[in-house]
Amino acid sequence: MQANQHNSTELDAEWESSLSDDVRFGDQPSEQFYREMLEREEQRQNSLLSLLRPAVLLPLLTNWAEEWFLSRNPFLIAAGIPFMALTVWLGIQILGRSVDQQKALTTYNTILAGAQAAGDQQTSELCMRALIGLDPEDSGAKMQLAELLWNSDRRDLAWQSIVELAESGDHGFPPAHMWIVQNARSEKPWQPVSTAQQMQHLLHILAVQPRNAEARALLAELYSGEEEWQLAEQHLTAAAEVSDEWLVPLIELQRMLGKQQVASGRLQEYEQKLMAGIARDSTDVSLKLRLAQVLALQSRTAEAAQLIEKQRTVADTAELRNYHSELLLAYARQLLDVTVINRDRSLSLVMQSLQLNPDSIAALQLAVDLEEMGAICPTAQSATLYAHWKTKATEATDPSTQTLGQILAAALDGRYSEAADRLQPLVSQQPQSYPRLVFWLMQAGRNSDAAALAADIAGTAREKEDNELDRLIAAECLSNAGNYGAARRLLANDGELPQGLLQTRVYGLACIYEFDTAVNRPARNRAAPSAWLPVMPGGNESARLLVLLRTAAMLPAVKAEAIDRLARISLLDAGIATRSEDLLLELRSTGTDAENILLIMGTVAMLNERYGKAIDWLQQANTIAMNRNPIVLNNLALSVARSESGAGQNALNLINQALELLPENPELLSTRGEIFVILQRWADARRDLEESLRIRGSRPKVHRLLQQVWIGLNDPQQAETQQQLADQLEAATAP
Known about the structure:
The protein has about 725 residues and is mainly α. The protein contains 37 helices and no strands. α6 (about 140-150) packs antiparallel against α7, α25 (about 485-490) runs antiparallel to α26 (about 500-520) and α35 packs antiparallel against α36 (about 700-710).
């Protein structure tokens, strides 16, 4: 035994000497060195001395000694003293061997850390296998080895090892379960793992680690996908108790489940906690990101965007820019939900969002929608976006995303023919895009192409009589192509008006657009109000057109557009004007939206410079609104300012009330700028008009007002510049 101990000591000394040299001088040990070292270790592990390993012998001796002592007569214990001494001596030897094993573990771990830092996979693998040899129960080392095998493309072997770890013992090794779940949720899972199986893996983790927040959150997500809302909330609540990271998802879930009061309480508590954390450490970006999320959840999106914008001045990262972009987009939608007149301010926010993240398809889509609603996209910005998506065509990214981005960017830049050509090959898979394709073809002047496409789609829809969606799409295509009668007939059911919201909108717009075509409405953006009066054909045709408008006025989805046309007829010097006024009075007296009807009537009168009628109708609307409608206040202010000499101050009071209700609205700012011009307050006028241009983009009217401002400021050069800009814009938008 002494000889064996001596040999072991010599081997250990040689080993330790070799390792210490490598560590001391920092040289990279050779693979041969590790192999020799491993061979020596294996020899030692396989020798007779392995029978004396602490993990085997120490429990046996301990149990034996305990049983022997308890089973013996105390007076006879002395006889066993020699054997007990032998046991003590063996224990000392075993402890010595345990120390040797611990040195080996420490050494291997030291070399492993260095190899991993250097990216040396071969050495890392050797060390991992040695560690497993020293401690076959070390699941962590086995998991490390499996991940190394996976990263070195030995995936079948890696997968087998991880599955074995997951199946070991009663509940397996938690990291192995988590690895399997995360792989299953990746874009290219190695093997299919069902939702139920993923749940089982996560439940095994929780059986061992009940406070594993990540497992709880993943389980909540899976339960949500199965609409097991109670279980999802239960696990997400448990995750949030461990880490604040999961509070926001929990609040979102509770709000979705209608638990508004509970969610609001959590939001307020969390907001205070985050504020306190930021007060202690103002450099913690993660806290500010979470606070922004909490603010956004409370519809305080503007505050959230300001918070992130301020943080970007400290350290501008890709993560912050992308999140700032998302918040601006959310704020744009929030404003649009309040009222459609926020379309200009919303578009300004969307364009800021696109400046931060020009790859955002959602922002690009909303920009196109807003422009079709009447908002004006600055030409320079739309051209920049178009060039950006042209460049992306050469990048190796998702082809479908590239194509959609190029289509939307082209449309936003007014390149309707290009947008239509790119969209045409895709619409068979996206039939809901057919109406937009027809619209773009018409905008591009390709009327015959639009008409042929609409007729083809309508023919197919007639063959599928029972498919309401196909009929709706076909009717919208026909209407966009100018075939209004065919669109209405396709939607009418045995002469009855359609019932669905979308169907009634398409039907009503077909009525209105047919009226516009018959009375020579100027070819302007349909959504933009302008100064024009209809040229009525007279006779039975006028009566037929009035019936079309009366029908549209009974449909809530297009009522406002119909009233706009009726109000224009009422301003004519013809007998039909009286009939139109009577119809408007009937609508006001029988409906609940007298305020909106009077607003539309007053606005139409103002646009056509009938200021007496405009003031009369708008004052009635303002009385009903109790000074709380910013559009009514704006249009009344304009009508007063333009009609009465010396009424500028009264008009200014009205527009200031409007701006209190709707700050930063470009139209309200341009109105106040105009009133300041009337009052000859040139600096104030310049400030408001330039801010209006910044938010909404160039408009001839605003440039004309700025021309007057610069004349008032005795700067003829600047005045000429504004005149030129106005002339150019008017020429570009001329029919």
